[in-house]
Amino acid sequence: METLISVIGGANVDLSATLNDAFIAADSNPGHIEVGYGGVARNIAHNLSLLGARTQLLTIFGGDLFGGLLHDYCKQQGIDLHLSDHVNAQRSGIYLCLNNHGGEMIAAVADTEVIRSITPEWLAKRSGEINLSDYIVADTNIPEDSIRWLMENVTAPLFIDGVSTTKAHRVVNALSKAKLPYLHSLKLNLKEALAVTETATYAEAAQKLLDLGVAHVYITLGSEGVYCRNAAEEWLFPALPGEVVNTTGAGDAFLAGVVYAHSKGIDFPQTAQYGLMAARATLMSPKAVNPDIANILL
User: Fold this and answer.
1) Which of 39, 71, 180, 253 could link 278 by a cystine bridge, Cβ 3.0 to 4.6 Å?
2) CATH code, domain carrying 284
3) What is d(CA 259, CA 282) in angstroms, rounded to the nearest whole number?
4) Residues 6+ apart with CB under 8 A from 129
5) Residue 287 confidence class, pLDDT cut points 50, 70, 90
């Protein structure tokens, strides 16, 4: 039977501005603005769908125009939305990003309040279908209690993306409160990893995360590549060469590549190499999801 991957978390409209020249504070900077569809969970689901995986997204769409556009766009990409929901009283998620002239992020603002509606009760109503999944992916846009509910109730391997330094703490807090703390895989960037573990190096951070109950740790290091570790081995893989057009969505693509590799029976740590290939594909695209990722990765 075809592998089913469920992805739980945020879906946003993305507003991505890239400068033509060096940033000047408190001034109007010439550049260009891209309007697209994003959200960590949505990006992961989109990448997985493009890679040919049977993918369902569990998210909340607002009752505004953006919500309808997001919903229709996801459907067009072959993402199953039958477990998602609309909340008419809420505005849809919006992600606003400012990049320098080299494509690197300067700052971003994420308005993902609507995703707080993904409560443990909301998930419990869908638990039967969630547990038909072969793999489950979640982002930390959902509340801490919901992350803990997933840790305690899902039967398939659970992968989590840390999203940001603020939200990544939800994973550590959920692990500390879970009845049987266990998480198959956690992907963080270096800043997130050091912040949530209060350590000084990625190796120390990974060890602390293993001690908390994470089985496989992936710490992305930007242009330096990725450090991955489990109880038996640790690896540092360099980043793959390629022109950087836009960094938005690269981390989401990395985790999608990791999950896809696991679904194909590829062993750790080679899954990280699939993640790097997926991230490179996104870095080479002005969009948060490269529509040609399958041609690049497969």
Assistant:
1) 253
2) 3.40.1190.20
3) 16
4) 83
5) confident
